[in-house]
Input
Amino acid sequence: MFDFYFNLYPWVRMILQAIAVILFMFPVAAACSMAERKVAAWIQNRPGPNRVIAPIGGLLTPLGLVGRIPFLGPFLQKMGIFQLAADGGKFTFKEDPTPAHVNKFYFVLAPIIAMIPALTTVVVVPVGAYYAVVNGQTILQPIVLANVDVGLLAVFAVSSLGVYAVILAGWASNSKYAFLGGVRASAQLVSYELSMTLAVLPSFLWMNKPGGQGTLSLFDAVQMQNGVWHGFSMASLHGMWGVFYMPLSAFIFLVALFAETNRAPFDMPESESELVAGFHTEYGAFKWSLFFLAEYCHMIVGSAVCILLFFGGWNILPWIPLTTLIDWLSHIIPFATHPLFMGLVGIGIFVGKVFSFIFFFMWVRWTLPRFRYDQVMHLGWKKLLPLSIANLLFYTLGIALLQK
Amino acid sequence: MAVIPVERKPLTFAERTYIPQIIAGLRTTIRHLFQPTVTLQYPEQRPEIPKGYRGVPTLVMDPNGREKCVSCQLCEFVCPPKAIRITPGELPETSDNAHVEKGPQAFDIDMLRCIYCGLCQEVCPEEAIFLQNTFSMSGYTRAEMVNNKAKLYELGGTLPDEHFKWDKKKTAEQHGNAH
Output
């Protein structure tokens, strides 16, 4: 069956993979909203949503039957899984009024535009690796929808389109709160985009030695961190994660990521205590849920990029890359090097890391209060930007001296 | 007024980056994450009702199962929101408690009006009405929210009595020394 899959026409395989990724992203982004509520509750010593259970009878019977399984059912109920289904159903089917005073075309366009970059960026994010036999040689291949050389550039280019959704929503809503939210978002996202891009450059300076083949591929960024990347002379750095020798880059990237995804303490565009709900004040029902999902998709993709660049991608521990792990496992499990098994292990490790990042996002959200707007600008332009430029210069000089 | 100058040390570099503070904050929140929750799971777990709690007003019987209310209507008069409505009645001659003479024919407390002030309990000379532990009343109609006499006795039950006033009176009467 796997041979059948690998022998499929590449386009068919791509489409299958794309559907798999969307089928993964949507529920996970939705589940993140429940995780957010649960983490918020636990941090505040509350149990969180733990009541809803699906009824038996009608469309929801399968869900209701799951809820009646002893131990598992009550556990799922306690974790709010059925609440999640109820919320999803509500967002999909409730009335979706469009206010009379809005610019209808752009009002409807905004949530669509929010969703597009959020789901598009996933295309270039590798999620795992497997051994493939190409021209008689066994090489490591990434599990990715589009293994392009411009991976990181594509992520930045497409994900920064997300700001248009916020601006458009704020402007089309024709409401002062939404407008202020949109204005804040545009200024904030533009400010932090800069530091974010400058912060990741050192990591690619390491990879692209002069005269070599230039790449911005995210897969190669992970390869650099598992010691397999060929042509790299400094053995001491093999297997080390980016965060160890570029801590400042990782830090700046993380802070900018918080700002880019509009998460607390940078949730200026929403700032529910100041601007009602910011740019999505006038939205409700399905359109609002699209904004919501887009925010979580951004978080997932952002964390994924951060992990790929600085936290070792699908390598389980520093100096223990996936390939070594699979070598060990192949002593116990005969089919360990099978693409499916290896891929699943890699994806499992990677998704685990992404989830811990999402948890970190939530943890920070319920710890830090929101910045004042001038503080956001101050931090962005006067602190992070000079810091990231200094960081870039430092690594440029350092790499130049080391490779001389 | 003396002016006391307060020495404020300038922030150190670490403090100005906020990072130690942020880490301390994160430590605090993660500690709370693993603490047990403090929420009372209400319908299953009930709060402990303190002594002297003023819940729903109820009518009580004495330990002999005698209706204590003598329909003097003091509670009806004192009730600030006029939630109590009593129809007084005479006890029949054949009754065991005929010497009490009066008892309520109907006793309605409109729980949509009641403000749980406890004045009825305070004013009752017979200690027949008590605000007890029930605190949640619900119903689908207005009529459901009016507690009639049967419901009031069902909610109230029997409370211990110290005086047995009417029993003593009856004994005294039987011995011929009624006042």
About this structure: The interface with chain A takes residues 22, 25-26, 28-30, 32-33, 35-39, 41 of chain B (CB under 8 Å). The longest helix of chain B spans residues 19-34. The first strand of chain B starts at residue 57 and ends at 59. The CA atoms of residues 56 and 136 of chain B lie 8 Å apart.
